Amino acid sequence: MVIEEPKVGLMIPTLNAGKCFETMLNCIENQKMANLRKIIIDSESDDNTRMIAKKHGFEVYNINRNQFTHGLVRRQAVEILSDCDFIYFMTQDAYVHELAFSNLLHFMILHPRMMVAYGRQVVDVPGENYFDQKDREFNYPEESRVKAKKDIPRLGIKTVFSSDTFSIYRREYLENVGCFPKDVRFSEDMYIAARAINSDYEVGYCADAVVTHTNGLNFREQFNRYYNIGKFHAQNKWIQKSFGSNEKDGITLVLTQTRELLHSNKLFKIPELYIRSFIKYSGYRIGKLWNSKE
Question: What is the pTM of this model?
Answer without folding.
Answer: 0.92
